[in-house]
Every structure is written in C-alpha cells, then in structure tokens.
Amino acid sequence: MSVPTGAETLLMELMMKTPETVRDPYPHYHALRAADPHYRLEIPGQGSGWVLTTYDDCRLSMKSPAFDKSGVRPKLGKERGDERIRTLLFLDGPEHTRLRGLISSAFTPRRVEKLRPKLEAQVAKLIDPMRESVPAGGGEVDLVKAFAHPLPIAVIGELVGVPEEEWARLRELTKRASTAVDTVYIHDLDMLREADAAMTEMEEYFTELLEQRRKDPEDDLISGLSTVEIDGDRLSVEELVSVVVLLFSAGFHTMTDLISLGTSALCQNPEEMARLRADRSLLGPAVEEFLRFDSPIQITGRSVIQDTTLTDGTVVSAGEQIVVVIGAANRDPVKFKDPDKLDLTRYAGAQPAEPPLSFAWGAHHCLGVQLARLEGTLAFGALLDTFADIQLASQDFDYKASGMFRGFSTLPLQVVPS
User: Fold this and answer.
1) Three-state SS annotation for the chain
2) Tens of pLDDT, residues 235-274
3) Tens of pLDDT, residues 171-199
4) Domains of the chain, start order
5) Half-sphere exposure of 279 (CA within 13 A, CB side)
6) pTM higher than the cut 0.70
7) Biggest distance spanned by C-alpha atoms of the chain
C-alpha cells in the first residue's frame, strides 16, 4: 500500500476512511507518528485540537487530571441528553471517583470468577450449533453472526441478571445506543435521536428490573449494586441504571470485535495459531496481544481543562481537544519490539511488554477488564477445542462502518470440526 508522507494528507485519509485505511490503518499511523507525533488540528467551528499517536502521549492524556472526558461526551436528545451525563464514561473528578468506588465494591474479581461455569455454558450453547452446522469434512460458518455477536450480550446478561428472553432486545438497543459515541455519526442528528431513544428505553427497562431485584434480590450484579454502601453512601436509582447501561454498551462492541479480530489475526499468522493450540497457557497472554495488535477501540477523546504539556514539553492549552489514537499507541515501536508482528508470547513470562491501551488507563481504566479477559480466554479456547482447522474463507473483509470501533460485520471462516 502506498502511504502519503504529509501529516495533513495522512490524517485526512484516516478520517475519510479510505478503503486502504479501513483494511489496514497501521501504515498510516506509523507515517503520521513519524511526520508529527502530536499533530495540531484546526477544526472549523470547533477550535483547535491535537492528534496523539505515541504510546507515552496517549497514556498521559488518559491518566493526567489536566485531561477530561466530560467535554467530549455525546450530545444526545435535547429533552435530556444535553443537560446531564448519562454514563460514567463521560464523568470526571470527585463524582467519578465516588461512583467508581461504589461500583468496584460490587463488581469484584470474585463475582466475575463465580460466573465462569455459566459463561462456559453460554460459550458451549453458541459453539455447539456452529460445529453441528458443518459436515465432518469441513464447511463455512460466519463467526460474527454465530458466535462473536451474540456471546457478549449473553455474558453481560448473566452478570447483570437479565432474563435470557430479553437478551436479543437489549443487543439491538445497545447497538443503536452506541452510535452516539461513534465519530461516524457524531453530527448525524437522526442517528443521535435514535441513539437517545434506545438509551431511554434501556434506562426504563433497567429501572423496572432494579425495582424487581430490590423486592426479590438474586445473586447478580444489579442486586449487588442496589445494596452496596460505603460510609452511608449508596448509588441512586439513576446512577445504578447508568452503570448497567454502560456495562452493556462498553462490553458489546469491544468483545464482539476482539473475538473476530483475534481470530482473523490467528488465521493470518498460522504459526501463532499452532503455538496457541500446542500451549493453552498462552490464552491469557494471547488476549492481551490481540488487544494490542488490532484494538477494537481505535480512537478516543479528551478535553484539556488546564494548561499542561505533552511528554516532550509541547504546550497544550485549556479548551483544546485531544484525539487519542489508541491503535497507533499500541504499535509504537518505541514501546513494542516488532510492533506489526503478532507475538503471543509478548505478554507471557516475567517481563511482559507494556500493557495495551485498549482498556484505557488511569481513572477511566475499564471496570470490566476481568470479565473481558475471562470471556476472551473462554471464547478462543472453545474455538480451538471445537475446530481442528480454522481458516479465512475470504480475504475480502467486510469491515463495519465506524470511526471509533474496528471490527467486522461478517467474518466467514472455513472450519473442520475436531
């Protein structure tokens, strides 16, 4: 692929989602980092901003209190969304710290680990029909439709305590609501109104479910969140519902895309596929490497709320916007040896590589990281156990239209059952 050299042209091609940058944005990321690692961008009518492509700058923007997320929250329907932050994702400062502390006391690694048998059952429930759909000699399956798309909602549904008959409805609502944070739709008022309506419907559903759990609690997260208390402080109904909505929204796209992107990467690196088949202790490190190698979340944003500097002393001013290119940071050659190589041992051993920034960093480090890692190891382990051979059925990838998320709408595989 021919890659231009000017920072402005590189950025324009990335933003316009040319076929080349959709299929493989990483050469453009490398070229942009080399041309200008913190490119200053003038946005007509919106002021100035910076596009960060180094690991250190991106991590700094995620952990420094000089950078804030509330200024980049989506503006949803005028009746409600413009005036209040409807998710912890776009909240900062003391209130964010308070809510995160309350949530963390209920959303514990122990609660996630207790889910393992149920998650294994959900994985089997989806993967067994995949195996039965192809003859013994092999056949074609769509990984996204059959497995990667339905699994995350099943997992989050089990965690939260949503009845199985509601999963399909919530999967569709979550898909519609998540367009509010995608840069492709950020100025599409019709899409934002649809996202707002979907989020409202989710809020109403979870408010009703919370009422039920308060009367008749079960061993699920929504029941646990409804009773958690620290020094007399408890989550309000609105706060609790916003947390559950965030879990569905944040966990849906990322896990669907992690499973499909990771499987594609294995298929295109058969020596690594063979390595993982031979040593299942690499499943955990493999999930980390998939996140680094081809991150489901490619970009995020921050606002500068006080004058500060980037890692090389470059001054950024309060009021400016920051585009954090996670996909570029995760392949920064300063931090990662052979960054464009898939290496499933990169996060194994006593001295693992720097963690990928796909789960964010600092105050907004993903609350569901333990669940994501468990879900990923179970999913990839089951795929390898179920199919003796997994190959891409086509090199003509069907990438979904998105500015923030990277993944496939479909991923046809040629598989042979074990």
Assistant:
1) CCCCCCHHHHHHHHHCCCHHHHHCCHHHHHHHHHHCCEEEEEECCCEEEEEECCHHHHHHHHHCCCEECHHHCCCCCCCCCCCCCCCHHHCCHHHHHHHHHHHHCCCCHHHHHHCHHHHHHHHHHHHHHHHHCCCCCCEEEEHHHHHHCHHHHHHHHHHHCCCHHHHHHHHHHHHHHHHHHCCCCCCCHHHHHHHHHHHHHHHHHHHHHHHHHHHCCCCCHHHHHHHCCECCECCCHHHHHHHHHHHHHHHHHHHHHHHHHHHHHHHHCHHHHHHHHHCHHHHHHHHHHHHHHCCCECEEEEEECCCEECCCCCEECCCCEEEEEHHHHCCCCCCCCCCCCCCCCCCCCCCCCCCCHHHCCHHHCCCCHHHHHHHHHHHHHHHHHHEEEEEECCCCCEECCCCCECCEEECEEEEEEC
2) 777 888 777 877 877 778 889 999 999 999 999 999 999 9
3) 888 888 777 666 554 556 777 778 788 88
4) 1-32 (no CATH), 75-296+363-417 (1.10.630.10)
5) 11
6) yes
7) 63
Quick check: 41 and 285 in contact, CB under 8 A?
A: no
How far, CA to CA in Å, does 46 sit from each of 49, 317, 331, 342, 346? 9, 14, 29, 38, 40
CB 111 within 8 A of CB 221: yes
For residue 176, CA distances in Å to 160, 179, 222 come to 20, 6, 22
